[in-house]
Design goal:
alpha+beta; Beta Polymerase, domain 2; Four Helix Bundle (Hemerythrin (Met), subunit A); nine-stranded mixed beta sheet; four-stranded mixed beta sheet; 12% strand
């Protein structure tokens, strides 16, 4: 490449031997563009893999810079000695991504002359004119050594330094003096480990986040580079002086006898796989982009040849490969670091392990290194895999930390664990680790069950012990609701259960702390939490399939028949409470009675509530809020009342009468006349009296009576309820067709999300509607300015002064980000006449967007249906809106023809509003 550029420069020379700067820049730009295009064509055609393409890009830049160096020397008449141009950082390692910076070191003598300074300036300005992003430094050898002593980043970049062109004697001096500049190898490695931990916290400490940073995140390219730097430092310590550098496709840690051949091959594959993804990211984005976001995942998966298989999308197969690769990178770190540290530390402080509670012939296989348990030289996990379990048991019982060499050996012997699947002692220890209680507010707490599960999962122990678990390791769901892979979500759910049991959620929902303290089936509860999504990705209903999987896993774990049945039942119904609380009218007695028929047992109800909350909290930090906690608590209380024999359908009239008596007493105590109280009590139907508590009824009475006294055509009252993370909006107005839709439109324009709604038409024809709303962060509207804006926009919508459709169109222009549009959300409409005695229930699934509820409710109104209540839930980009409706004469919709018309109209509405990403409609 350099020779081609040199020939072109010669042709462009003028009579005096010079080349005009404009001609030179144009020539260099064409040269880079032509070769960049060819490299991209070969890469995207799969003729070059990631490392090969990145190496070729680096070679292209090497040739370009060498030619520029010669041109600059000629233009400035600089001497041939006294300047060496070096590549550092990633470019120095011989790998370059398409839009990455290039890091250059202009290595000079202590006092570079003006011509060398002019040569450096010429090159930098020339590169900037070419559009090359350059990170640069001009230093002497002594300056480099001093900077390396003071700055970890500079020392790291110099590890990868290489001479591109210029005075090689300067570079040789730098290498010799840098590699013999002290015995700080051990401190360097400690500093790099500390730097890595801080980086992980900044870019996502959990490697199983579904939109990872492939360079800086845990298990990403930077972690592999860190291992490379650690190995280079070890090489320097073992052999002072210049060290031969590995080829770019051959990381340094794979060239020494630090890994088995199988481990080295895995490292090379991970290195190449991550670089391939990185190059695709750059080419797709047209810039240096390191985040594997939703919109590019299917594109890269397709380019790399990942096609759908069965029910699994190609993008999900691609991302599973990615997560398994990051896991492999983390395992490499666990394997390499102890070896490197031991080589540098020399003799270590060992003490014999006495093994309290352990037979002496077993204890002799372990020792303590800095008070951490580790396998001794006599431990042969390959021939005696049960020793691994004894080591874990000792660490658990005595609160000992596993030494890095212990984790290293667990990883290297993971396949041997399969022989322990029928070993009772192994399963007993595993259950003990799983159920280790979470301890809070301790300076040195014991690892929780989730902490142990993370270790067992990362080392491969868990997947080898439970083959069904290995099927969900690294498995993602291509949606914006779940932020973790399936295995990590299950572990996180165990962590949440531990927090509940420890009382950390007692302020949010005190009930569950009491339930957790009195748990009668603790083993079953923890196993069900661990396995609740074990069948994800198999096709079919994962709850049903998971219940079947539990039937054979639980006996293997040592659970008895009753515990096995409990675990299987909990997995089968683990979504029951959340789907009922957020999608059904829990004031409808039929809903509660149907739920009680399924649950049947107070103990099962308690366990199911604990699992529901742990599951929701483990999905994402943004999924849980006080409103959902309130709904679940109310649902639990009502079902518990039925299971205790406290509610029957025949008691409905008695409950209505009791509610009215409480309201009457409250109104009289507040100074209202008997006549006023009687008037208000005559307005509501039974559903209204059962739908609110007495305090709310009294507040409604004042609102209604004040409105009637002042002959107000419209009254709006917004009440923040921050302890529930919602604002309650009550609207009293004349009822008319489309009322709900107009209100929903006004709230959408205000940026409010409706999470629940109760629609009541009073006996005098007036509507008393209640909406519970949240802001974009899932919190209540509280400030006077926010509340005034809500009231104002609702009033404008109802009076016809707000152009709802136009305003929503404006919002839609700023709506879903491109990365979200990549996710397919099928449209689905379900019409159910069985779940309610008095209403037809319409459940609508579709892509969430501004104004979706407005469009849906307008369509329902156009279909001559009355909405009695609405329950609005979102799961990432998927909205699930449930409406309890009746026709204009107050009866259910039972005609199949009529239901088909309603379904078709709603599916059309969903499709019209989502034209930018059409869904495949599904009717049920």
């Amino acid at each position: 490449m350099r020779a081609v550029l040199a020939v072109a420069l010669d042709r462009a020379r003028q009579a005096d031997g010079t080349v005009s700067r404009e001609d030179a820049v144009s020539l260099f730009r064409r040269h880079i563009g032509r070769h960049h295009g060819e490299i991209r064509r070969l890469f995207e055609g799969r003729q070059l893999k990631g490392i090969a393409a990145a190496s070729t890009l680096a070679l292209l830049m090497d040739g370009t810079i060498s030619s520029l160096f010669s041109l600059a020397r000629f233009v400035t008449d600089a001497p041939e000695t006294g300047l060496c141009l070096c590549a550092t950082g990633g470019f120095g390692a011989g790998l370059l991504a398409p839009y990455s910076d290039i890091d250059l070191l202009f290595l000079t003598t202590m006092e570079p002359g003006p011509k060398i300074t002019a040569q450096i300036e010429y090159m930098l300005y020339f590169l900037w004119d070419l559009g090359v992003r350059v990170g640069h430094a001009t230093r002497s050898v002594e300056d480099c050594l001093q900077a390396a002593r003071e700055d970890l980043t500079i020392r790291t970049t110099l590890l990868d330094a290489r001479c591109i062109v210029g005075d090689e004697t300067l570079f040789s001096e730098l290498l010799v003096r840098f590699n013999t500049s002290g015995n700080g190898a051990l401190s360097f490695i400690h500093d790099k480990i500390d730097e890595r931990e801080k980086r992980h916290k900044r870019f996502g400490d959990n490697p199983y986040m579904v939109e990872p940073n492939i360079k800086e995140g845990r298990g990403g390219l930077r972690d592999l580079q860190t291992l490379n730097w650690m190995t280079r430092v070890l090489q320097d310590a073992d052999k002072p002086g210049p060290v031969s550098k590995p080829k770019p496709h051959e990381p340094a840690f794979t060239t020494l006898s630090l890994l088995t051949e199988q481990e080295a091959n895995r490292a090379r594959r991970a290195w190449n796989f991550l670089w391939t993804i990185r190059l695709h990211l750059h080419y797709i984005a047209g810039r240096a982009d390191e985040r594997l976001s939703f919109d590019v995942q299917p594109v890269i998966g397709g380019r790399m040849g990942y096609a759908g298989h069965g029910r699994q999308q190609g993008v999900e197969r691609f991302m599973r490969h990615y997560f398994l690769t990051t896991r492999e990178v983390m395992r490499l770190s666990r394997i390499l670091e102890p070896t490197i540290m031991q080589r540098l530390q020399g003799p270590i402080r060992e003490t014999a392990y006495t093994g309290p509670g352990m037979a002496s012939d077993v204890a002799r296989h372990f020792h303590l290194i800095n008070d951490q348990i580790a396998p001794a030289g006599s431990a042969d996990f390959a021939s005696e895999p049960r020793l691994m379990v004894h080591m874990l048991d000792a660490a658990f019982r005595e609160n000992l930390v596993l030494h890095p060499t212990a984790i290293q050996q667990l990883i290297r012997n993971e396949r041997r664990i399969a022989s322990l699947r029928d070993d009772p002692f192994t399963m007993q220890v595993f259950l003990s680790l799983l159920m280790q209680q979470t301890e809070m507010n301790r300076e040195n707490p014991r690892p929780s069950g989730a902490d142990w599960l993370t270790i067992l999962n990362d080392t491969g122990f868990l997947g080898a012990l439970l083959p069904d678990w290995s099927r969900i390791v690294g498995q993602m769901q291509f949606d914006t609701y779940h932020i973790y892979t399936v295995d990590e979500h299950n572990i996180e759910a165990v962590r949440m259960l531990g927090w509940i049991e420890a009382g950390t959620m007692a302020d949010e929902i005190p009930l569950v702390y009491d339930l957790a303290r009195d748990m009668q089936s603790r083993r079953a509860m923890y196993v069900a939490t661990l396995l609740h999504d074990i069948a994800k990705g198999r096709g079919g209903d994962h709850s049903v399939l998971g219940a079947e999987v539990a039937q054979h896993i639980c006996p293997q774990l040592g659970l008895d028949a009753e515990e096995t049945e409990t675990v299987s039942w909990l997995i089968l119904h683990h979504l029951l409470l959340s789907q009922t609380a957020f999608r059904r009218d829990i004031d409808d007695p039929r809903t509660i009675l149907d739920l009680a028929d399924i649950i049947q047992s107070p103990e099962r109800l308690r366990l199911l509530l604990l699992l529901t909350i742990a599951d929701m909290r483990a999905v994402s930090p943004n999924v849980w809020n006080a409103w959902k906690a309130t709904l679940l608590r109310e649902l639990y209380s009502r079902v518990a009342e039925v299971l205790e024999g406290g509610l029957a359908a025949t008691e409905r009239d008695e409950r209505v009468s009791h509610a009215k008596e409480m309201v009457r007493d409250g109104l009289v105590q507040q100074g209202l006349t008997d006549g006023q109280a009687a008037h208000f009590l005559s307005l509501g139907y039974a559903g209204y009296w059962l739908g609110f508590d007495a305090d709310t009824h009294i507040r409604h009475a004042r609102l209604v009576l004040d409105s009637e006294t002042h002959s107000s055509p419209l009254t709006i009252e917004a009440t923040p309820i921050p302890q529930r993370d919602v604002t309650e909006i009550t609207i009293f107005s004349a009822d008319h067709s489309g009322l709900f839709s107009q209100i929903a439109g006004g709230l959408a324009v205000a940026g409010a999300s409706i999470v629940d709604a109760r629609i009541h038409t009073l006996s005098d024809g007036m509507a008393l509607d209640t909406f519970w709303v949240q802001d974009g962060n899932g919190r209540a509207f509280e400030t006077p300015l926010q509340l005034a804006r809500l009231n104002g926009l609702i009033e404008q919508a109802l009076s016809g002064r707000l152009a709802i459709s136009a305003e929503l169109e404006r919002l839609s222009d700023q709506r879903t980000a491109r990365r979200m549009r990549a996710i397919h959300v099928p449209s689905r409409v379900v019409i159910d006449n069985r779940a309610s005695e008095r209403h037809t229930i319409i459940e609508i699934n579709g892509r969430d967007r501004p104004g979706l509820l407005y469009d849906i409710t307008r369509t329902i109104s156009d279909q001559s249906l009355q909405i009695s209540s609405a329950h609005i839930t979102t799961y990432g980009m998927r909205a699930v809106d449930v409406f309890y409706v009746r026709d204009l004469i107050g009866t259910k919709v039972t005609s199949e023809t009529r239901m088909a018309e309603i379904r078709a109209a709603l599916l059309a509405t969903l499709s019209e509003g989502d034209a930018s990403h059409p869904s495949r409609p599904v009717a049920a």
